[in-house]
Each structure stands twice: as C-alpha cells, then as structure tokens.
Amino acid sequence: MCGVILMNDEKNKKGENIKDLSAREKRKEFTLAKDFRVVRNIEQKIAPVNDEKDVLRLLCDSLYDTGKYQGVFYFMINKDKKIIDEYSRGINNISLEDLNDMILKEKSKCFIYPVEKRDIFVGIEQCEDCEILKKSNSEAIISLPLEYQGVVKGLFSVLLEKDKAYDSHEQNQLVALADLVSFKLNKINVGRTLGLVRKELGNEEDLFSLFVDHIPAAVFIKDHNSRYIFTNQFFRKIIGHDESHLGKKPHELYSKEIADVLLENDRKALKEGLIECEEKVPDKSGTLRLYNSQKFVINRHKKEPLIGGISIDITDKRDYQSRLEYFIRLHQILRETANEILRSELSEETYSELLKRSIEIVPGAESGSLLIKKGDGRYHFVGAINYDINTLKDISLSPEEVMHGKSYEPVIVNPNKVDDRLDKETRRKLMRARKGKEIKSTLSIPSVIDNEILAIFSLDNHKEKNAFDDTAIETAKMLGQQVSVLLRKISLEEEIKKERTRLKYLATHDPVTNLPNRRFLEEKFNEYITWAKEKGRKFSLMQLDINRFRHINEVFGHFS
C-alpha cells in the first residue's frame, strides 16, 4: 500500500521533487524529529526479540523512559476477555484484579472501545467515563489494540497530560507503534506455527489440514516444479483462489512479472533449504498486496522434495514506512524553506518561492495563489504560480468572500461555487488571471495566528475533481502550521525593527522640539570625519547662535 502516498505517476513525480529538494541539505547533518526517532529506536530494539512478552515489555520500558508519559502498560486477553498477561511502568495503584474487573464488567471505555472497535481510544477525565483515569489520578489516556491478523489479542495504553492527548502527531506515533508491535507479535506467532507445521507434516493428512486451516496466515505447499498442491483456508480466502488452482504453476495464475519472482524464490528455497523473502501477489479484488514469506524444503524419502511456505501480509507496515520517510523529507523541506525566507526580505519573489515549494510537495497541486490579510481587514493576493499576479494584485477580498470560510483546517472546495459570491468585475479579473485555465478542485490552507486567519494558500488542480487525497490534506496541514510559525516570526521581527527605530529616534532627538540633539551631532560628526579621511575630502561645520534662547531654556527647561 505504498501507493496510498504515491499511487500514480503524478504523485511519484511529487516524491521525486521532494527527493531533489532534500538533496540540497546533504551538506548539513539532519536529525529525525523526536517522534520519528522514538518509533525507529523501538523498531530496532524489538527486531532481534523472539518472545512476545519481551517485545511488549520493551515497548513499555522504551516509551516510559522517554519521560513523556505518566504511565505505560499493556495486557493480553483470551477469548473470554480475561487477562492472561500484563505489565506496567509508572502505575502502582491499579492491580490485576482491578483490570480484570474493568474489562469483564465493561467499566472503562478506554479498554472496551479499542478491543471491540479495533481502533484508537482517547479519553480525558472531564469528558470520558474512564475508570482507569480515576484510579491513576492521570489527566488523559490513549489506548490502542494489538491485533493478530485482524483479531484483537490485547492492548497497550499510555497515561499523559491532557493537552498532549489530542495532538495528532502524538496519536500518529502511537498508532504506528501499535502496528509495528502487532506485526512483530504476529511474525513471532507465525514462526512458532511454522515449526509446528514442519514437525507435524509426517502425521496423518487430515490432522495436518485441520491444523493448518486454523493458522491466521497464508500457508501453501508446492511440488518441486512450483505447482500448488495444498493451500489453507486463509490463503484461499485472501488470495481468492479455489480448488481449481491446485496443480497449476504461478505463470498459469499470475502475470509474468509476478510469476517470475515467485519461481525465482522457489528455486532459492530448494537450493538453500530455508529463505525469507518479500513477494507481491494480487488479492481476490486484484489489488497487489505485499507478503513476507518464509519458504522451506520438505524432504521426502525416495521422492522429489516439496516447497512449503507461510506468508504474512505486510502491506500496511510498508505503507507506514513509506509515509514515515515521506513526512521526514517533508519536515526537512519546510524547515529549509522557512530558513531561506527568514534570511531574505519579504517580497513578491519570496511569496512566489514559498508557493512554488508548496506545489512541489503537496500531491495533486498544479497551480496556486497566496492571500495575506492586511491592515484594511481584507485579503490581498501577494503571490501566484501559473497565474497572472499583476491582475490578481488589483483584487482584494473580504473574509466573507474568500473561498476558505472560517475553518482553521485545510479544506477542499469547489472553486466554481465560490466564484458565485463575487461581483461580476472581480470574477472577470479572476478569469483573466487564470489565463483561461479551468480549476477542477482547490485545496485551501489557512495560516492561523492567535485564532485569526492571516494567510490562505489556494492550491489548484486543473484535471480532476478528486485530486487531493488524505495525504495531500495531511501535508497541507503541516504546511499551514509551518507558515503560521513563519508569519509569527516575521511579525515579531518587524515589531522589533520598529521598536529599535523608535528607540534610536528618541536617543538622538529632542523630545520637545523633535530636533536632532547633541548625540546625533556627535554620531554624524564622527561619520563625516571618517568619510573625509577615507575619501581625502573636506567638509564644513556651521554653527548658529540663536538670540534670546535663554528665554526658551527658562520656559521649557535646559534639556530642550
């Protein structure tokens, strides 16, 4: 499912653009964001572990040791929803009996919801009936299910501060960890089953078939010519084959590209005895899925050997890795862009460069414009890509006229409906600025500072109405947040510059007459002396004596 991010040619091109932009930073040392680093560290720690309990304890210890959580725990349950294993860090006043009671009597949504709905649960004491929060004196809890091939076998939870509980980055990190650990637990379970399969192969076939049909993974046996001679129920259900595929080779079932890979791996297994590989096979709907397969030789007395195999679907895991790499590169590009803008003066070129970067990284974007809210309370166009900016500069929009509305989140809008709000002259100018291009879909991205939308990116697609997917929206959200920080920094720097200018003026001018004072004279006099020496030039100093100036001093003071 890597295609979730870069499914078609255009999105592949976006990925290449991101790689090209990232290459500009090769001379600098790049450190992963802290959340990504936590996931990677845990993945490395559990990689060599082959015991389920050890994997889960490592997860809890690693998360608790980050110092981000008030407590971390997990438990595993049987089919009767009774706890068969548990472990915790930072939680002392909750016993195993308490946990069992909460589950069996359905007293805590933080346990029941993830187990029954197979989804993340976020609970806050003030708004959720969560028994665990009351007993732990914590502000919030996030719980996630641990699944074996779609069956929830337990969950892990973290206790944390309330303001962090609804942070999307925090939730995404924990979801990624739940997927990672679930995959690892499933792999351990399948590996154990694989050993039993090989051990039991010599027993009667009925017992073997019954046993293998209950394995939650695709199990198959081929002859030495790679013809299928056995598949279990899971294989037939997921891959979509029936009994008619038995006796057939991969080339009779799949495309040449897929079959060639399967045959090559079968040959390696026959040669080496046991291999682990990754293979793509279409499911019953025709969608390609990625499997981690272990293939092994089954030797038979005075007969040709067989090829046994067991495969686990890792498409979602690979998708997570691709998304992780994508957003790491995205963070890097946004930081680079922000630093470049802060080093330069704000101008039309600066805004255009920011828009150009936005179009390069947001999947589906082809053109765009940038609106900034100015002192008159209206939004003005300050930058555009693939549009006529000079025409757009003549247009200003009220908050009610902008297509985004009042939402603080990125939204997908139909530009044709929005244009109906505008007067005839404004619509005419917009059409002229678009150079005759029809807009099929627009992704509108706000930049919010102090609960006020100060800037709006409009990224357009001219080919399809559904050009922007979930990845585009998530990318746009990150972009909007980064630009909000950038605009706040620029605003603060402008305020600092104004304050410095004001203090400089007060230090060099008389507060009563607003005329330059003695300090101003000394500074300028020194500047001219330096200039005269460097240029070999002369200059004159004129002194004026004002009659009856004593009277001014007596009335307004000597400081005047």
Give the terminus-to-terminus CA distance.
77 Å
Question: In total, how many beta strands?
Answer: 16
Whole-number total of structural domains: 4
Overall shape: it is elongated
Largest sheet: 6 strands, antiparallel
Number of helices: 21
Tell me what the structure shows.
This protein is an alpha+beta fold and 560 residues long. The chain has 4 domains: 34-185, 2-Layer Sandwich (Beta-Lactamase); 193-317, 2-Layer Sandwich (Beta-Lactamase); 344-497, Beta-Lactamase, CATH 3.30.450; 518-556, no CATH class. It is built from 21 helices and 16 strands. A 6-stranded antiparallel sheet has the order 13-12-11-16-15-14. Strands 2-1-5-4-3 form a 5-stranded antiparallel sheet, sandwiched between helices. It starts with a helix and ends with a helix.
Provide the fold topology.
Blueprint: H1 3-6, H2 9-23, H3 34-46, H4 52-65, E1 71-77, E2 83-89, H5 96-104, H6 109-117, E3 121-124, H7 131-136, E4 140-148, E5 151-160, H8 162-165, H9 168-200, H10 205-213, E6 218-222, E7 228-231, H11 233-239, H12 250-253, H13 256-272, E8 274-282, E9 288-300, E10 303-313, H14 315-343, H15 348-361, E11 367-373, E12 379-385, H16 389-392, E13 396-397, E14 411-413, H17 415-419, H18 424-433, E15 441-449, E16 452-461, H19 470-508, H20 518-535, H21 549-556
Antiparallel strand pairs: 1-2, 1-5, 3-4, 4-5, 6-7, 6-10, 8-9, 9-10, 11-12, 11-16, 12-13, 14-15, 15-16
